[in-house]
Specification:
GO terms for molecular function: DNA binding; sigma factor activity. The protein is mostly helical. The chain has a single domain, classed as Orthogonal Bundle (Arc Repressor Mutant, subunit A). Helices cover about 80% and strands about 0% of the residues. The longest helix has 23 residues. It is elongated and about 40 Å long.
């Protein structure tokens, strides 16, 4: 998983920050946060599929 996607995922899921808070902290647009979350979740789904096959 790309480092930025991992960072966004951790901030949102484990530190309970909103997309707006993450965007402010990282200096990126809120839409970019959403895009990174989509990529991170897609990556995790793919890895789980591989592991269960």
């Amino acid at each position: 998983m790309p480092p930025r996607c991992r960072e966004v995922l951790i901030l949102h899921k484990f530190e309970s920050l909103s997309y707006a808070q993450i965007a402010d902290r990282l200096g990126i647009a809120k839409n970019s946060v959403a895009a990174h979350m989509v990529k991170a979740i897609s990556h995790l789904r793919s890895r789980f599929r591989e592991a269960s096959a």
